[in-house]
């Protein structure tokens, strides 16, 4: 299917819009193959090249849609993994309500003892014969889960064999969050907010049919998920002086009596860095569009963290006696992080998370050094050791 | 004759006593719990510090103090920084106390504070409400710089309208203060000088608190990274982290020397302005750097409210603004050492 | 419509041709040997670059050039930076050429230079000798900004007293220049504008040279650290070094985007001043950082004259001063984006 | 021997000064045990506590003396090693002319393939029966040797057994530089100067009597040498705004028309750092004097390198069109490095060596992290491998 045919199909769909109800419209769009055109027919797509999605999106601009951030984990991580590793039944069951936003997804990977070293997860999945065949019972603790309190399903990595080396004893599951063995608790951060959750699993039950990939191949499956996560980050075009820089520049302009020459040059340095970052993002998107994606994505995330931390640190210093104040420590559960909606102190503290969440800056530097620059890996001491024998 | 920058035995004994007391009263868990209580200050700890004489070390005996020096007070501040103990030490035992001492007035036993924005770095006499005053919510004596038609004056008030403010630093919150009735404590040049000395003293001694913060952050991080394992290794064995901690150690070494020198200068009265500018400029940034590295190198757990790392980060960042940001102190230094723009 | 920041196929082909030429003529060993010879410039290489049209890419065809754009010239400069090739490209094909082009004058085939201190960042018209002029020793045409009673003028001279100067940059030495006889090329606002545009163009394109320097330094260091073994391991497997090189890579990524944007802005005439200020401020420091890391991470060998690392360090440091230090460009930016002191 | 007795002895020696000839005076001082009081009697000392040396130095101030920098390697590195590991004959033969400066010493440790990893030295020492008993023949290349062109003797580390792991196959020798198998070539640096040398050894001969420590124990012996080197660094009290900072501050004051606010704040930052470093040095010396040496020495060297590089980089930028110039590229062989005697460009380039020479900043950070902070070492891959089998 080429761009013209797709455009025609999209126009026809819009022209014959079946309903004004958002959910019904989205279901119809899915069934017409106009959800994600590169997915197979019958699963929301038309088997078309991924690059043609923009044709559809352009034609359907203004029609009822989901908040992409609300269903982001489902779209960006669960869906590609289900598509690649799910059985036909699993795909049929999960992809449509995922895409329409009827069912929200979360991701249960990280654990207190498995952060950067994700392959060290210790949540234990044990086999048990259930009423409808094989079930798995899961016990363990997951952490840093966004949306866990609103999610119906989770993608999850658990240890099925502790006697194997850590990468080999993992399996990958879909977990129904709506069951007694799943307890979700808010995880308060240094900002006072709780954007994330801890999830405690006590014999939580998963039917074997909801396993993705073979037993013991969870790490391989997780790679698909994580690859898609990395692609998703930093994908948006931003205007000049937006985001954190915009907030800090505004503060600067509104507080002329607080200017000092030292802070001025620091601000200008950050302005330059931010603009160079913005241009690098633009360049990266042009490379992607030209079909030649570069390896710069990790560098972008690294640079973004450095920049947002430097900028917000400067802003607090600029504000002097007002920098000593904070807007609100109340425990809140925001749906979204909005750097610009709150005060300098919040920005300063929240930005500290930018070098942790979605891969620490340290791990990103490892990735850049090894995968981009081709530097040798360090000596590994954990490759051939049974997971249960690793020092923890 | 060069200043003594090492700790004397007496100073080490003092440190040990204060550290013992803080171990009992200001554990991370206790400090964290108190942050969110009705009374963010630990008034019992504050009383005990007073009882052991730690709050009046540098006050001459004839003014009611211990007759030691700023060097000893600086050691107490290192320890308070190490535990981010929520006591009004800086506001009362340093800032207010310095005003009384300079003026030759007996230092009252009540908790006092100096009613200036905590970010002040030079004497300003104004009128009306004052924003972001440190340690005001538990003060019962207020020293107020007032601009009058007759010139600058320092006033003393025994009551004030104190409005607590949601503060970046959970362990030393600021408040807005309005004073209505007050008596004159000093006038003219005496008033200006006393305020100037108090701010210099505060900035110079704050450097020792910052050394305490930096030291605690560094060594807590080292301890955590020795225990924490990822990839089958202690995380502290990863060279990139080791090098960052080594750099931090280097900063701590210089920060301690600068803070000690400032304390000694405040004790002897020699080279005070340069010593304070150097210590304030240097130690502020070192403490923030150490606290930021502590949060980062603790990984996810350092981003959580339940871990004490954020208490140090918030204190360090607030201290960076307190009594003059580093760039203000560098600008002051430029004049003092003839490196003008 | 956003600027195209990726390289076109034509640009990549151009890069390949120039790189081939430089591989033959400007190997590190050849460049190092030439530094200490009687003629530090490689005039044969310069002639060949001219023959292939690389020196007049952005010059309109009607003025004797290739009718391409600054984007292509920037690609040539990346390659020249990668090899620190000793040719008077920046002085002649960029600075002097920009003056002729702005004035609508045919660009002469002789090697020319703009007689300003190479550190200039804003138009200055003066009289008398000019210090530290780039690429002057091999020029046979001199464009001279002259302050006259009638206002600023640009003069053209076919001879000058050129005194070579021992230069920090061994591969682009500076010289002191005195011009006695000259003819008027432009007057008043035309002269000012032409000089302003030439300096902007120079600073904007220099950023591409700096990207080339940074890239070469980074990747040569990576290659060396893959081969060099200490402690039974490739030195490049040590995490602290890997992280520093990753940071450098991040800087290179942003530097390339900034330099490409400046080249594109110079090609289209849109957003030129901001684009140049950003590229000049950013890329100067990135190139210096990369060259400094290259020297350090090569260990002892990088400190020796026989290893080419120092050629890049000296070029990078000189380039940081050339056509305005980063802080000058940031100061210019402050006005352009309304972030005033 | 206590301070008073020592003072009396020194006064008596000065009062009965035997000669005005420098060399004769120094020999007499050595023979009187007033060279290094903590050395044994008969070897230039009196077996007194090291701390009492200052008593002697005070009393003998103004008497003929050596340039301590000229004989620094001999004093600081060779002498303590000879004292600890040399036979009586070796001590008698070498210590006196070493101390009097009649014989200059150099140190032949580093090699092109053994820099930070000093234990990897590959210079081969093979046994040969010579006329006067056992000799060793040495072949290999040493590098970064200061004073090699003026030195009569060298302390040297060489490999006696390549089949053992690297630390175990080394031995430590005294080499006579005045023989055909020793070729010294100047090693030009990026400044244009040649402060150092390369030394090529081709069957250079060493009598077995000039071995220090047992065969195979060279690494242990070298530790004595290196420990003394580290102590020697950064030991001098400096006035405020001296050294590199003094030079750059002077340049700043002399060039008011070149000031910018951005450079100003950078300079002030460096001023503060330099003053804090100076105070830290003062504090370290006070700790030593109080008999409680701290571990801060490595941090001082690390900080010094950072600071001198930052300051000199700033100075070149400040100098604008004059920063584009250099004073002199002529190949020279200076006896001493003088940061203040030359131009900004020289300072900038020479300062780059501060983070390499005498232990790279990277190695210093390892040392601080492991020995001072107690962080664990990295996994080692070279401990149990024969030297000859290590990747090179």
UniProtKB/TrEMBL annotation, chains A, D:
SUPFAM superfamilies: Acyl-CoA dehydrogenase C-terminal domain-like (SSF47203), Acyl-CoA dehydrogenase NM domain-like (SSF56645). InterPro entries: Acyl-CoA_Oxase/DH_mid-dom, Acyl-CoA_Oxase/DH_mid-dom_sf, AcylCo_DH-like_C, AcylCo_DH/oxidase_C, AcylCoA_DH/ox_N, AcylCoA_DH/ox_N_sf, AcylCoA_DH/oxidase_NM_dom_sf, Mycobact_Acyl-CoA_DH. Residues 216-373 form the Acyl-CoA dehydrogenase/oxidase C-terminal domain. Its cofactor is FAD. This is Alkylation response protein AidB-like acyl-CoA dehydrogenase. Residues 5-102 form the Acyl-CoA dehydrogenase/oxidase N-terminal domain. GO terms for cellular component: plasma membrane. Belongs to the acyl-CoA dehydrogenase family. The keyword Transferase does not apply. GO terms for molecular function: flavin adenine dinucleotide binding; oxidoreductase activity, acting on the CH-CH group of donors. Residues 106-198 form the Acyl-CoA oxidase/dehydrogenase middle domain.
TrEMBL record, chains B, C:
Coiled coil: none annotated. Keywords: FAD, Flavoprotein, Oxidoreductase. It holds the Pfam family Acyl-CoA_dh_1. InterPro entries: AcylCo_DH-like_C (IPR036250), AcylCo_DH/oxidase_C (IPR009075), AcylCoA_DH/ox_N (IPR013786), AcylCoA_DH/ox_N_sf (IPR037069), AcylCoA_DH/oxidase_NM_dom_sf (IPR009100). Its cofactor is FAD. One of its GO terms (molecular function) is acyl-CoA dehydrogenase activity. Residues 200-335 form the Acyl-CoA dehydrogenase/oxidase C-terminal domain. Residues 9-90 form the Acyl-CoA dehydrogenase/oxidase N-terminal domain. Gene3D superfamilies: Acyl-CoA dehydrogenase/oxidase, N-terminal domain, Butyryl-CoA Dehydrogenase, subunit A, domain 3. It comes from the Bacteria. Belongs to the acyl-CoA dehydrogenase family. This is Alkylation response protein AidB-like acyl-CoA dehydrogenase. It comes from Labedaea rhizosphaerae.
């Amino acid at each position: 299917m080429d761009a013209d045919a797709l455009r025609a199909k999209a126009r026809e769909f819009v022209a014959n819009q079946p309903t004004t109800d958002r959910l019904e419209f989205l279901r119809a769009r899915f069934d017409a193959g106009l959800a994600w055109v590169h997915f197979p027919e019958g699963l929301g797509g038309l088997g078309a090249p991924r690059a043609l999605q923009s044709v559809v999106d352009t034609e359907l601009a203004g029609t009822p849609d989901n908040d992409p951030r609300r269903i982001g984990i489902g779209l960006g991580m669960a869906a590609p993994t289900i598509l690649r590793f799910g059985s036909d039944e699993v795909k049929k069951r999960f992809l449509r309500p995922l895409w329409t936003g009827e069912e929200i997804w979360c991701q249960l990977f990280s654990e207190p003892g498995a952060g950067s070293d994700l392959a060290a997860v210790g949540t234990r999945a044990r086999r048990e014969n259930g009423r409808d065949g094989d079930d798995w019972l899961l016990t363990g603790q997951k952490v840093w889960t966004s949306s866990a309190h609103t999610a119906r399903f989770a993608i999850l990595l658990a240890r099925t064999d502790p006697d194997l080396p850590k990468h080999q004893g993992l399996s990958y599951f879909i977990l129904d969050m709506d069951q007694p063995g799943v307890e979700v608790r808010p995880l308060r951060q240094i900002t006072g907010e709780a954007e994330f959750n801890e999830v405690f699993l006590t014999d939580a039950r998963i039917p074997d049919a909801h396993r993705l990939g073979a037993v013991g191949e969870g790490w391989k499956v997780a790679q698909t998920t994580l690859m898609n996560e990395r692609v998703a980050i930093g994908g948006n075009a931003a205007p000049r002086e937006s985001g954190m820089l915009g907030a800090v520049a505004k503060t600067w302009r509104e507080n002329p009596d607080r200017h000092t020459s030292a802070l001025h040059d620091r601000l200008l340095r950050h302005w330059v860095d931010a603009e160079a970052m913005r241009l690098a993002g633009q360049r990266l998107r042009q490379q992607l569009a030209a079909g030649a994606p570069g390896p710069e994505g990790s560098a972008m995330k690294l640079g973004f963290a450095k920049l947002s931390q430097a900028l917000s640190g400067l802003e607090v210093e600029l504000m002097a006696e007002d920098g000593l104040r904070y807007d609100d420590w109340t425990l809140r559960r925001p749906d979204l992080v909005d750097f610009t909606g709150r005060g300098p102190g919040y920005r300063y503290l929240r930005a500290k998370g930018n070098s942790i969440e979605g891969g620490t800056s340290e791990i990103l530097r490892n990735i850049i050094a090894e995968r981009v620059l081709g530097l040798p890996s360090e000596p590994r001491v954990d490759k051939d050791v049974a997971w249960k024998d690793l020092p923890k | 004759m060069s200043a003594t920058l090492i700790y004397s035995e007496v100073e080490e004994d003092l440190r040990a006593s204060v550290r013992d007391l803080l171990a009992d009263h200001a554990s991370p868990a206790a400090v964290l719990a108190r942050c969110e209580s009705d009374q963010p200050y630990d008034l019992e700890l504050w009383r005990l510090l007073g009882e052991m004489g730690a709050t009046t070390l540098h006050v001459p005996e004839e003014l009611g103090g211990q007759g030691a020096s700023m060097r000893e007070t600086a050691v107490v501040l290192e320890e308070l920084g190490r535990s981010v103990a929520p006591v009004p030490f800086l506001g009362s035992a340093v800032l207010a106390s310095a005003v009384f001492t300079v003026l030759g007035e007996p230092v009252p036993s009540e908790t006092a504070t100096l009613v200036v924005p905590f970010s002040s770095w030079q004497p300003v006499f104004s009128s009306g409400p004052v924003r972001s005053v440190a340690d005001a919510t538990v003060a019962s004596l207020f020293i107020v710089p007032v601009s009058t038609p007759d010139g600058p004056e320092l006033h003393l008030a025994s009551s004030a309208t104190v409005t607590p403010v949601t503060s970046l630093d959970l362990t030393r919150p600021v408040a807005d203060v309005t004073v209505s009735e007050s008596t004159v404590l000093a006038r003219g040049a005496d008033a200006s000088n006393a305020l100037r000395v108090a701010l210099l003293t505060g900035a110079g001694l704050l450097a020792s608190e910052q050394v305490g913060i930096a030291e605690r952050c560094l060594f807590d991080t080292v301890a955590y990274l020795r225990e924490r394992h990822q990839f089958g290794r202690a995380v502290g064995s990863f060279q990139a982290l080791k090098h960052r901690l080594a750099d931090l150690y280097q900063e701590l070494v210089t920060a301690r020397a600068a803070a000690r020198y400032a304390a000694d200068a405040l004790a002897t009265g020699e080279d005070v302005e340069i010593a304070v500018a150097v210590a304030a400029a240097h130690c502020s940034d070192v403490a923030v750097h150490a606290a930021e590295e502590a949060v980062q190198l603790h990984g996810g757990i350092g981003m959580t409210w339940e871990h004490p790392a954020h208490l140090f980060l918030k204190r360090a960042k607030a201290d960076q603004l307190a009594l003059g940001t580093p760039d203000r102190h560098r600008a002051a230094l430029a004049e003092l050492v003839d490196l003008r723009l």
